[in-house]
Amino acid sequence: MNALKKILIVKLLAGLFFMTSCNHDDFLTRKNPNAITEPTFWKTEADAEAALTTVYAALQFQSVSGGHLTYEMIRSDLGGTNDWVRHFPYTELVIPDNSRPVFNKWAECYNGIFRANQVIDNVPTIEEISEERKEEILSQARFLRAFFYFEVAHTFGGGVIKTSSKITDHNIPFSTIVEVTGQVIIPDLEYAIERLPLTRPESDLGRATWGMATTLLGKVYLYNKEWSNAAVEFKKVIDSGLYQLSSNYAENFRHDVIYNSESIMEVPFDGSINSGAQDASIVDDGGNVSGGESTKLARWYGPYSLGGWQGMMPTYWAHELLVADSVAGSNAHSSRYNATLAGRDAEGLYYNKTAADLKAEVGRRWGNGESSYVKKYANWYHMDTENIENRSSINYKHMRLSDVYLMYAEAVLEASSDLNTAIEYIDKVRSRAGVVTIQDYINNDGGIPQLHISQDLYGERPIVPASVENIRTHLRMVERPTELAFENTRWRDLVRWGVIKDVFTSHHNDEVLRIENFEKLQDENEVVPILPPLYIEGRIRPDFVNNWSFYSPDQHDYFPIPAAEVQANEAI
Asked: CA-to-CA distance for 291 and 542, rounded, in angstroms?
């Protein structure tokens, strides 16, 4: 079992990482002479390693790599929900600044930042560690700090810059994305890229590498619309030869295939150990058992009747988009469809039963407007139901090669209108999925079909020329949402492209038409027929009834700064 999979439990560090001081001299507040304090802790390489481990452990927080990411994902056009589910205000873009998910995301990222700052501040003072070893430890800590700050900046639209654990005045102004990126993220990544190794031994898989830092730097440039710089960084990762697309798309989201050839940054989980504590990062399992954290993501995705909470379901648009992921010469669903969602016509077994048997067993499955459920990161492929104690061992991938290919395609398209290269890298991703490539569409049809337009509602999809504008639309509205569905990229993509209003308005218009068609069927038939490709039963779930009309980029692109931070920080 690799080192990160067996994250150390260092209970004695609690006093170090969350120290408080007291001036009272009564019996109850006397200092423990055996307690570890800052002056006594930072002495050995083992101390440095233990502290660095706590920074990695912060990656396992549920708002960083687990189930609470669904509160961010639900805002996009991929995620729908019912109005009685706690996620509903988020899909409606009504997000209070005192809500728990908002506070948790901020607090958990800053917990990771604080731990990284402690390593960065104190490791240079440890005399027994060689300078080379110090740099290796610091390069990991600085990559992780950059990662946490990227999460803060692109969740909240900026952040409070804290680059030392020793500051005493916490009244620090809120900085913009540009300021956080320039002052912290890029310098940290440049430091890390110069010093991190290309690969890790099996025992250290999951620790920071050159590929992680270079990919994140490319992503920073992409988000800044520095297209040429982004393309350069992504091409370095591609040309390194360190990563290859996995031949099996689905294995990216299973517990029994970890750190595969496509994985660049992956956070480990161990569902056999976690107590299921609501917000624990590391849990104490007693005795000498090493701790590990489970992810809740599987249970948030799973259907109610199969042990899940069904917090987020695919929208009808997302469902039909994946239906359009066409396999040449076949009516079968693509590998991306089968690994991403389960419709009523699901192929193969779903929680160890056929879809037909599951529907016959419990009629409300795929009912009440629920056309499909999320499979990705759920345990549908090996369990009968989701674990009610929130235990799942599926590692979370923050970076994988197919995303790099698509970001590179976007960067070269925007930087130089290089259609051939953009199509080449899009087609690498499509070929792995076994679906018709862009080049095949061009060769056979003289152009590309607009697969994001509903065939169910509007008939045959238009064929358009493979122009820069149309390939851009394909990347935005077909390839990225199909390949990366439910991986927490979609909302940020829509924000950086500035297209949310237009996209949501289009989806709303489709929703209105779908409701009208459904009601017309009700008028004409005593029993409404269950029609392909979505097989909607009972009602049309309204996922775009309000959010399209009152969306405002200034109000809704980012989470609000948590009320607790505003109250505690007088400089905001």
From this structure: 42
Q: pLDDT per residue over 451-477, tens digit each?
A: 999 999 999 999 999 999 999 999 999
529 domain-assigned: no
* Nearest in space to 411 (alpha carbons), one of 271, 124, 552, 217: 217
Q: How far is CA 92 from CA 100, 297, 419, 500, 562, in A?
A: 17, 21, 37, 13, 19
Contact between 144 and 55 (Cβ < 8 Å): yes
Residue 545 pLDDT > 80: yes
Under DSSP, the state recorded for 180 is H
Distance in angstroms between the alpha carbons of the first and the last residue of the chain: 45
Q: Which residues contact 524 (CB under 8 A, 6 or more apart)?
A: none
CA dist 214 and 237 (Å) reads 7
- Strand partners for 176: 158
- Residues 153, 252, 454: CA angle, nearest 5 degrees: 75
Give the amino acid at 101. Answer: P
Q: At which residue do the structure tokens 């037909």 appear?
A: 356
Q: Give the number of other Cβ atoms within 10 Å of residue 435's Cβ.
A: 22
What is the domain range of residue 137? Answer: 1-196+542-572
Rounded Cα distance, 66 and 59, in Å: 9
Question: Quick check: is 384 in a domain?
Answer: no
pLDDT digits (tens, 9 = 90+) for 55-101: 999 999 999 999 999 999 999 999 999 888 888 999 999 999 999 99
- Which DSSP letter does residue 546 get? S
The answer for 571, left when phi > 0, alpha when psi is -120 to 50, beta otherwise, is alpha
In a domain, 341, yes or no: no
Residue with the two structure tokens 């390839």: 479
Structural domain includes residue 564: yes
φ/ψ of 9, rounded to 5, equals -100, 115
DSSP category for residue 83: T
